[in-house]
């Protein structure tokens, strides 16, 4: 096995091992599952309706090889322009197999073997394996340990002459934080200075799959409006709560200088082919205009967040109040997240230990579980939390 395959496997092994355990829950009707952001209820009615509307072929080439469909690019560019207040054009959009595909395309587009990529910690546990598989070097930059704000100074310290990309994630998984424009302006200044110092442009990859999942009217700002050398990855799987239907995109900030923008646009299609046909299936792309109008029920998700957050904080849990995503991120009572999660598992309640995010003192709860599941789990969470607080 190749060195990069070995490194990728090792960096994701804790996740795949945990996933195998969770998949076994499918056969247990009494399991209270709060692990991954999978659906626990039937799909949004508009999702199958949108797909059915495109299944019937309208031409002989309806199911032919499909790169980035022009209609999908136009729908995404219009939606992004309206959301972010930037003049995206269809040619700025590369349609991909979800955010996984968009991130892989960004790495192939912007970085060379051996380049360093700065990633947030705690952050998504698949950044590192994707980087290793691409022969790139992950460099961790810790978030603020108390607030989980983006620590711009920590990112500045992590940058070296080999840095090519910095990844940011807002709304952030697992913490639920949404970062304001002031943060992006400060980061833009750091990246401009570092790019000049090292004589090489540092790119920003803004990981935005939860962009439309925000609470309490909190505004969203993308760093694409603050730092021209930004690319955005997005997945429809979160807002539709359908992660098995792979649909996403990579978008160039319209502020990218024109010559570089043209060069990158021209590389989208050949690189999408070269990385293993990274384009979404034809029917998914034909459905984009309809899917752009659909969303998870934010009122119900807010109700779930408030019920779980209020119950746990009233019992003394330290929980970061999520501003976005569909997760709760908290400190494990007693400080040992694995022992805490094991005690919950003994009661049939499954949450994600922070070890998957390199945070052994924390845990994550997915709020995609049903409200009845939440109500059944709360007494167990309160009991186990009290037991572990006493043991500390």
Automatic annotation (TrEMBL):
<dbReference type="InterPro" id="IPR004838">
    <property type="entry name" value="NHTrfase_class1_PyrdxlP-BS"/>
</dbReference>
<dbReference type="InterPro" id="IPR015424">
    <property type="entry name" value="PyrdxlP-dep_Trfase"/>
</dbReference>
<keyword id="KW-0808">Transferase</keyword>
<keyword id="KW-0032">Aminotransferase</keyword>
<comment type="similarity">
    <text>Belongs to the class-I pyridoxal-phosphate-dependent aminotransferase family.</text>
</comment>
<dbReference type="Pfam" id="PF00155">
    <property type="entry name" value="Aminotran_1_2"/>
</dbReference>
<dbReference type="InterPro" id="IPR004839">
    <property type="entry name" value="Aminotransferase_I/II_large"/>
</dbReference>
<dbReference type="GO" id="GO:0008483">
    <property type="term" value="F:transaminase activity"/>
</dbReference>
<feature type="domain" description="Aminotransferase class I/classII large">
    <location>
        <begin position="46"/>
        <end position="378"/>
    </location>
</feature>
<protein>
    <recommendedName>
        <fullName>Aminotransferase</fullName>
        <ecNumber>2.6.1.-</ecNumber>
    </recommendedName>
</protein>
<dbReference type="InterPro" id="IPR015421">
    <property type="entry name" value="PyrdxlP-dep_Trfase_major"/>
</dbReference>
């Amino acid at each position: 096995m190749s060195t990069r395959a070995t490194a990728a496997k090792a960096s994701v092994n804790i996740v795949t091992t945990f996933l195998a355990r969770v998949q076994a829950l499918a056969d247990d009707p009494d399991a209270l599952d709060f692990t991954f952001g999978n659906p626990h209820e039937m799909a949004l009615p508009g999702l199958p309706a949108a797909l059915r509307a495109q299944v019937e072929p309208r031409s002989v080439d309806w199911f032919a090889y499909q790169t980035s469909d022009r209609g999908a690019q136009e729908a995404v560019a219009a939606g992004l322009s309206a959301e972010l207040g930037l003049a995206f054009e269809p040619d700025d959009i590369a349609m991909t197999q979800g955010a996984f595909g968009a991130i892989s395309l960004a790495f192939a587009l912007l970085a060379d073997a051996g380049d360093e990529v700065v990633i947030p910690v705690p952050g998504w546990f698949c950044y590192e394996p994707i980087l290793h598989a691409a022969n790139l070097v992950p460099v961790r930059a810790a978030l603020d340990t108390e607030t989980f704000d983006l620590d711009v100074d920590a990112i500045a310290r992590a940058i070296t002459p080999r840095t090519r990309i910095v990844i940011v994630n807002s709304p952030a998984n697992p913490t639920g934080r949404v970062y304001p424009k002031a943060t992006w302006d400060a980061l833009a200044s750091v990246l401009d200075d570092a790019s000049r110092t090292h004589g090489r442009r540092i790119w920003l990859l803004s990981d935005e799959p939860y962009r439309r999942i925000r609470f309490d009217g909190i505004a969203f700002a993308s760093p694409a409006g603050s730092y021209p050398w930004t690319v955005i990855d997005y997945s429809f799987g979160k807002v539709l709560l359908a992660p098995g239907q792979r649909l996403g995109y990579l978008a160039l900030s319209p502020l990218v200088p024109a010559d570089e923008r043209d060069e990158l646009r021209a590389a989208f299609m050949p690189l999408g082919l070269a990385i293993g046909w990274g384009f979404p299936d034809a029917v998914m792309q034909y459905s984009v205009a309809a899917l752009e109008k659909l969303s998870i029920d934010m009122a119900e998700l807010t109700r779930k967040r408030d019920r779980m957050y209020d119950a746990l904080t009233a019992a003394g849990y330290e929980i970061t109040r999520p501003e976005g995503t569909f997760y709760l991120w908290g400190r494990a009572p007693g400080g040992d997240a694995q022992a805490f999660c094991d005690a919950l598992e003994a009661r049939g309640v499954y949450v994600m230990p922070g070890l998957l995010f390199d945070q052994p003192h924390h845990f994550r709860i997915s709020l995609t579980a049903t409200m009845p599941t939440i109500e059944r789990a709360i007494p167990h969470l309160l009991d186990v939390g009290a037991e572990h607080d006493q043991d500390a």
